[in-house]
Amino acid sequence: MHMKPILALPLLLFSLWAMCFSAERPNILIIFTDDQGYGDLACYGSKKNKTPRLDQLAKEGTRFTSFYTQTVCGPSRSALLTGRQPFRSKGWSMPAEEITFAELMRESGYQTACIGKWDVSNRKAIIPRMPNAQGFDYFFGALGANDGGTVKLHYNNKAAGSTKDMGGLTTLYTDKAIDFLKNKCDKEKPFVLYVAHTMMHTIIDASKRFRGKSEGGLYGDVVEEFDYETGRLLDVLDKEGLSKNTLVIYTSDNGPWNQDKYTKKKKGHPKGSIFWGDSGPLRNGKGSCYEGGYRLPCIVRWPGKVPAGRVSDAIFATIDFLPTFSNLCGFKTPDDRVIDGIDQADLLLGKSDKGREIFYFDRAGIRKDKWKYLKANAHFYGYAREDDRPLKEELYDLEADLGETTNLAEKHPEVVRELKKLLQTVENR
User: Fold this and answer.
1) What's the rounded Cα separation, in Å, for the pair 187 and 168?
2) CATH class of 4-356
3) Per-residue pLDDT tens for 50-73?
4) What are the backbone dihedrals phi and psi of residue 60, each rounded to the nearest 5 degrees, phi first?
5) Where in the chain are all domains bearing CATH 3.30.1120.10?
6) Against a cut of 0.70, is the pTM above it?
7) Considering only CA atoms, which of 74, 116, 143, 89 is closest in space to residue 383?
């Protein structure tokens, strides 16, 4: 059933209640990078890349070490926007009937802006599935990726030219975000600003200011530029008096293109350049059902609310943002569909150390506590099929074996049975 037309009245009533009784509704700033590895930031163990501003953000907030997105671009974005697993929200093909956190927040009195990569409307200008129709008052960015070295831009629902300057995109999107904060944002009303960067999606490039300056090759240049541009955005929050009541979230959509089958065939980069990231201690990267595809950096800051300097290994995921925002921002989640995310407000605010009990790897497997199970034919829509992977069920103890090197399925058949039942429960909801 199409729910959107009947949302208005109940949401309006709930919103009025929320605005009256919520003492402090935060602004939300989501900085969402593309194809960034778990080990790309200094505060996550990188020895090559210098990321002082993000390291400082981690000191001022909480750094999560078991944070999960999805393993590929579009599905990761639909999961973030809807709080639903990609097999429900359709990933790149997210239908107009899906309800995003932006729609719900706008109904509750928030200003809503999306800048950057959309990637849930099949990379086409399908008006009912574009940002303005999905809850965002303001949109500037691209409907898809930049694999061909060209990005077609849109301003709201209208085409706004194109660019082949991949090295200028990070600055461009940051400039647009800063313009929103300075000039388009009503300081008397809360806002949600979703900045979804194109970098480090291939074809990657850095601006002249950063190109050739890092120890991590071209990819490292882009990481360090991200650090700088994120710092610019945070500085504007300070100057505009917005930092104190803004929940800042920094994460990425999936792991890096770091497997030979991709790095060897991708074209369009300078000869000899390093254009893939680092999964750190994790196995594989983008598209993979192993941890390197799904587990990403996530740093959250809200001064005086989110504990500073904390490192949390609690299981947390992008699908949890919508119900968590519901609690913090005062809106009701849809009750006519499955919402896979859970309210993690207590975890964020330091009132609890416990995260989610399970995380489902789309059509591939499931994690419960320390145990991770993968189906024999685990894959994500054909991505990252390991040519040498035996078609056998896999079981890993992530506490003892974060790199997923030792398959314990035959040793612990009882755990395999339990996790297979849990997996079926998720898929049958």
Assistant:
1) 29
2) alpha beta
3) 999 999 999 999 999 999 999 999
4) -85, -10
5) 361-427
6) yes
7) 74
